[in-house]
Request: fold
Amino acid sequence: MRASAFAFAVVFAALLAGGCATAPVAFSVSTNAGLGTVAADPEVWSRGSALQLHYELTNTTGQARSVCLCAAAVHVESITRDGQRVDPVLLDVNVVDDPRAFFKQQIRELAGEQELALQTDGIAEGRVEHDQWQLYGYKLMRGRYRVVFSYHYDGPDYDKPNVFHGRIVASPIYFTVE
Reply:
């Protein structure tokens, strides 16, 4: 794997209820692929993938905000390989009494101008559907990829201050898998 410094940093704005405005939280995504390439995944499961993604949430205000720092708040809006849509593979289903209870431990407070980061290997997405956790993965095969991520949290506040409830959609990032 040829790794460049995290080269694709993109900061996004959100559309808020009152029209187009800057979100109180910025969301950025970067990858170790840089302008180079990463090796193809040996299987669909994202652990062990040569692709590393770095997600960062930044409080852009002077007051404390809270965010959900978990993979389930980061979503794959779209993914294509060589211009063709890539569909996820269902990897795991967990039936639990309260699938959203996991969020309680993941809501973190951000002081003004503070950042929190989450790093993952490969591309996977946790979803809450039909009162159960579902984990989806994307196998990275040879080709040129275009991926759009979003941050979206609409769960409970769990007594945390100023929880950011909203959606921020990223500009696309591009990388090549060999």
In short: Residues 144 and 176 are 4 Å apart (CA to CA).
